[in-house]
């Protein structure tokens, strides 16, 4: 298996953010390489080459890579130190394939058949890659040539061999090391000040500060030092923007950025404090009078911004006010359509203001430079098959719009075609940008995001790109020379997060899974004659009972107790049965790494590994054993600490006494997750306590809205909604301030009184025990199952009954148990299951019960004295056997009521807490009907919310389950007035099981209980 070497960032580059959930191209690259196996071209066809990206680092160097180029690569292998003292260890490798910034390399000396398995992928921008001779020329750390382990035993005359091998080869220019510094080069510096086009109000600019840079990309922020938000007439739009006290990302040459004094020089509106405006007026007068302006030390000057702009030569065609054209509106959300536009007015230095034709042209205008890739000649959209939004913005009139007629009606002329950027040769565009080729691209709607993307079509000089996993409606148009598209591997090279592709049909499956790794150690290994090393191959069991290989460790030689460095990566879901087989194979020698036999194997279930505190020891032979250790990332132990306060809260329908509390939820497509319910405070200006939420749950579901509902508490009847607001986690991360001060709205979306608001006053990242930490500390899961035997299921002796058991086919209840329970039961260390039946008459007297033992041998004991009955069965097989027997021994009845089953489980959960037993209870309720009395079930859930228990109800069939769904609400209230403090119930219908996360989110429920209940 080819190795993907992690990047060593070039000196001076620091990771921009937590990269645990940055997308890796690895699986895609493997697929691209396999599809490209018949090509002799060094560039992989399905990836855009670096040289087609304008101004990309190393574009010319990578374009000239060939298979006879050798490079020095730092040796970093298991069992080999990165350096000895201050001596760096390097060896030479040649280039085999190029995939964007990723390069496939092969060690010199790997010249045997099958040696391609030792090839490795490395990012060309890594600090570990050097030209041949760098070791000798390096004036810093000393360098020593050392052969990698895979070839170290193949010969002894490596110096002679190396000299002979290098004779016909070439290497990179001496400037290669200095060129690495260009990776992080940006013409704007942190702390400098620019004028920034308002992303909501395009008719004005505001002063902004450069917060950080990543390559050419800059992060800008409008700060209150130069901008008074309280006096801004557009302050109502602040919550919708990303610039004020936020992070707004764009390219250093973006149309959003202007030099200090640009607005004053061009008569463009600048909204800023008086001191800044006076400073800019002085700069503008000085430029007009050809006098050196007195710029502040951090002011960005005209020559910096104009470095890429061409000027208009006298006597040549030029734009005039009133000319018509087409343009791509950078402030619209439709980046796949052009608009009909007019040159509203001309500015200085080659700038012009373009407005969208319609009633509000002035207010929908944008400043462009005449060289901009966002403006196009009349007829461009029709020529290249792009949708054109006609005047007024009514897309339904597109088919009726005709430029010739419109020009006559408006008595206008079109801008000469010579004024616009030339359209590249069609054949060259098709050759450089093949359809389907992959790369990375900024999302123009959310400019901080960079996503995996691919070419959809070519429209003149515009590229229509699609974002991997997203539908065609999200496609966007980019000029082929735009600096918002990047070669594959750009994010990795810059330590910037690459967003995960959206896989809509499996999104829940991906989002609710946890990335874990397995470390493998062997003990007492005897290596027979004919072999010298061992390797471990990991495979996972498939639905057809076959095993699919998923990973291998490296090979370790001459070691009776090998400890493998390479981990086995897995995606773990609580509700997915995951069985792993480890095959320990014997390897002949370093030269061939040929597998010559099998030492033994061990099979285990991942839930069992978790139940055993993340460690298992299993035999592989009569003497040898394998130790398996589970490792999880620190990411799952990160948390966010919030604190909110209310201002001037009241409700027109309540008495002067007010007792507000809030419910904070994550609103998803199918449900709302309760993140926190605050305490009740009798005050119009409540200062609620801090609370903690695991960070990953909000990053799993970044598309979900965070909603905060404020209620007024009443002891004896339903609470009243005072108001609410919705936001996003991206917005919350901006921290306390004006951007996270929210006016409350009513259910119709209308704002309440302006003074009535909720403010975020504290937000910080902190740490907490992750789910995996809790398991390692001894937490154990206990599983319960409650099965519905009500009459609505039908007579179990009849084939149409849901409880009828066919001799060759499982019934509906058995299917659900087989699908949901094996993995959950596997998490239980003692393999005992609480098995409950409800909704039937039991025993000889036909006594009605909504909570009886599923084990029929315990029915008589239960009827004599319920407390003496044993509700436990052993293992999943024991559960199925008891179910098969009892379905014919009870009399189906009514109503559908499983409150007693919840009370039964929560009683033991509360007792386990008092005895500090470290147990968390999971009750799975299988039912074919809606609850008859929701009040009883609601009270049972609220009674249980302080206990270590979760309830998952699975609806079987297609009946109306609206009453059960209503019990998922985050603001339930007990009959005696007590509130729901933690969400206990999740409901999923049988048909949705494959695409639902109710069971998969149980680790989050466990962690939430530990954070918000157990810790009190």
TrEMBL record:
MBT repeats lie at residues 23-145, 156-273, 285-391, 401-501. It holds the Pfam family MBT. GO terms for molecular function: calcium-dependent phospholipid binding. Signal peptide: none annotated. Transmembrane segments: none annotated. GO terms for cellular component: nucleus; plasma membrane. Residues 801-997 form the Copine C-terminal domain. One of its GO terms (biological process) is cellular response to calcium ion. CDD domains: MBT_dSfmbt-like_rpt1 (cd20097). It comes from the Eukaryota. InterPro entries: C2_domain_sf, Copine, Copine_C, Mbt, vWFA_dom_sf. PANTHER family: COPINE, VWFA DOMAIN-CONTAINING PROTEIN. This is Copine C-terminal domain-containing protein.
């Amino acid at each position: 298996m080819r190795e993907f070497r992690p990047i060593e960032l070039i000196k001076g580059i620091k990771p921009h953010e937590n990269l645990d959930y940055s997308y890796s191209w690895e699986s895609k690259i493997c697929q691209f390489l396999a599809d490209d196996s018949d090509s002799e071209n060094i560039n992989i066809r399905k990836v855009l080459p670096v040289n087609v990206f304008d101004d990309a680092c190393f574009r010319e160097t990578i374009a000239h890579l060939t298979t006879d180029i050798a490079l020095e690569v730092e040796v970093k292998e298991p069992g080999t130190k990165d350096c000895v003292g201050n001596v760096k260890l390097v060896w030479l490798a040649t280039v085999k394939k190029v995939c964007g910034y990723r390069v496939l390399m092969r060690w010199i000396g790997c010249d045997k058949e099958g040696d391609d398995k030792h090839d490795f992928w490395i990012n060309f921008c890594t600090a570990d890659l050097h030209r041949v001779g760098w070791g000798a020329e390096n004036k810093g750390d000393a360098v020593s040539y050392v052969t990698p382990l895979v070839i170290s035993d193949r010969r002894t005359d490596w110096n002679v061999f190396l000299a002979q091998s290098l004779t016909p080869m070439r290497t990179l220019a001496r400037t290669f090391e200095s060129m690495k510094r260009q990776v992080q080069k940006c013409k704007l510096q942190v702390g400098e000040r620019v004028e920034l086009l308002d992303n909501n109000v395009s008719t004005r600019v505001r002063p902004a500060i450069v917060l950080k840079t990543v390559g050419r990309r800059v992060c800008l922020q409008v700060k209150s030092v130069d901008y008074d938000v309280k006096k801004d007439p557009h302050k109502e739009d602040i919550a919708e923007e990303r610039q004020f006290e936020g992070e707004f990302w764009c390219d250093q040459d973006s149309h959003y950025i202007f030099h200090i004094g640009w607005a004053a020089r061009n008569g463009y509106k600048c909204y800023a404090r008086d001191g800044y405006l006076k400073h800019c007026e002085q700069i503008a007068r000085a430029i007009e009078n050809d006098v050196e302006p007195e710029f502040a030390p951090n002011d960005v000057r005209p020559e910096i911004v104009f470095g890429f702009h061409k000027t208009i030569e006298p006597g040549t065609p030029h734009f005039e006010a009133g000319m018509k054209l087409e343009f791509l509106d950078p402030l619209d959300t439709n980046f796949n359509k052009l608009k009909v536009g007019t040159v509203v007015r001309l500015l200085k230095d080659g700038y012009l203001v373009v407005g969208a034709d319609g009633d509000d042209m002035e207010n929908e205008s944008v400043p462009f430079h005449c060289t901009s890739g966002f403006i196009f000649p009349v007829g461009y959209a029709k020529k290249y098959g792009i949708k054109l939004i006609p005047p007024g913005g009514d897309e339904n009139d597109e088919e009726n719009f005709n430029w010739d007629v419109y020009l006559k009606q408006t008595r206008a002329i079109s801008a000469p075609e010579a004024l616009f950027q030339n359209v590249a040769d069609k054949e060259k565009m098709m050759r450089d940008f093949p359809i389907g080729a992959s790369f990375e691209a900024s999302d123009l709607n959310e400019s901080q995001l960079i996503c995996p993307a691919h070419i959809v079509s070519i429209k003149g000089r515009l590229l229509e790109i699609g974002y991997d996993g997203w539908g065609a409606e999200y496609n966007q148009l980019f000029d082929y020379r735009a600096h918002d598209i990047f070669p594959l591997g750009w994010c990795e090279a810059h330590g910037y997060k690459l967003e995960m592709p959206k896989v809509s049909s499996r999104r829940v499956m991906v989002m609710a899974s946890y990335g874990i790794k397995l470390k493998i150690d062997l003990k007492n290994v005897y290596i027979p004659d004919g072999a010298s090393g061992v390797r471990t191959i990991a495979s996972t069991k498939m639905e057809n009972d076959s095993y699919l290989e998923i990973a291998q460790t490296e090979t370790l030689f001459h070691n009776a107790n090998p400890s493998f460095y390479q981990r086995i990566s897995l995606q773990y879901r609580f509700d997915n049965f995951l069985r792993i087989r480890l095959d320990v194979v014997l390897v002949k020698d370093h030269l061939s790494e040929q597998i010559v036999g099998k030492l033994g194997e061990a099979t285990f279930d991942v839930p069992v590994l978790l139940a055993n505190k993340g460690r298992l020891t299993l035999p592989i032979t009569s003497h040898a054993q394998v130790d398996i250790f589970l490792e999880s990332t620190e990411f799952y132990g990160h948390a966010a600490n919030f604190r909110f306060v209310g201002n001037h809260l009241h409700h027109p329908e309540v008495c002067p006494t007010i007792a507000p509390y809030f419910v904070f939820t994550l609103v998803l497509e199918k449900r709302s997750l309760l993140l926190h319910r605050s305490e009740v405070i009798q005050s119009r200006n409540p200062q609620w306590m801090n609370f903690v939420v695991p960070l990953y749950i909000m990053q799993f579901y970044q598309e979900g809205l965070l909603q905060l509902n404020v209620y007024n508490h009443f002891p004896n009847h339903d609470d009243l909604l005072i108001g609410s607001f919705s936001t996003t986690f991206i917005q919350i991360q901006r921290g306390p301030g004006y951007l996270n001060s929210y006016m409350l709205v009513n259910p119709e979306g209308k704002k309440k009184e302006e003074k009535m608001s909720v403010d975020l006053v504290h937000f910080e990242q902190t740490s907490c025990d992750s789910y995996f930490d809790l398991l390692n500390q001894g937490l154990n899961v206990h599983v319960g199952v409650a099965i519905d035997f009500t009459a609505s299921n039908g007579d179990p002796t009849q084939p149409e009954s849901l409880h009828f058991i066919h001799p060759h086919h499982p019934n509906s209840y058995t299917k659900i148990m087989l699908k949901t329970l094996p993995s959950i039961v596997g998490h239980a260390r003692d393999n005992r299951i609480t098995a409950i039946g409800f909704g039937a008459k039991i025993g000889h007297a036909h006594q009605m019960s909504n909570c009886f033992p599923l084990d029929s041998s315990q029915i008589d004991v239960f009827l004599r004295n319920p407390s003496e009955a044993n509700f436990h069965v052993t293992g999943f097989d024991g559960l199925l056997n008891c179910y098969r027997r009892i379905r014919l021994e009870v009399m189906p009845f009514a109503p559908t009521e499983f409150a007693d089953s919840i009370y039964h489980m929560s009683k033991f959960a509360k007792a386990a807490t008092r005895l500090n037993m470290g147990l968390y209870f999971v009750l799975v309720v299988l039912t074919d009907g809606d609850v008859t009395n929701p009040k009883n079930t609601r009270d049972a859930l609220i009674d249980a919310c302080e206990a270590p228990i979760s309830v998952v109800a699975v609806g079987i069939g297609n009946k109306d389950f609206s009453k059960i769904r209503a019990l998922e609400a985050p603001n339930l209230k007990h009959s005696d007035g007590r509130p729901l403090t933690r969400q206990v119930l999740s409901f999923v219908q049988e048909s949705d099981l494959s695409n639902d996360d109710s069971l998969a989110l149980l680790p989050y429920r466990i962690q939430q209980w530990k954070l918000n209940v157990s810790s009190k």
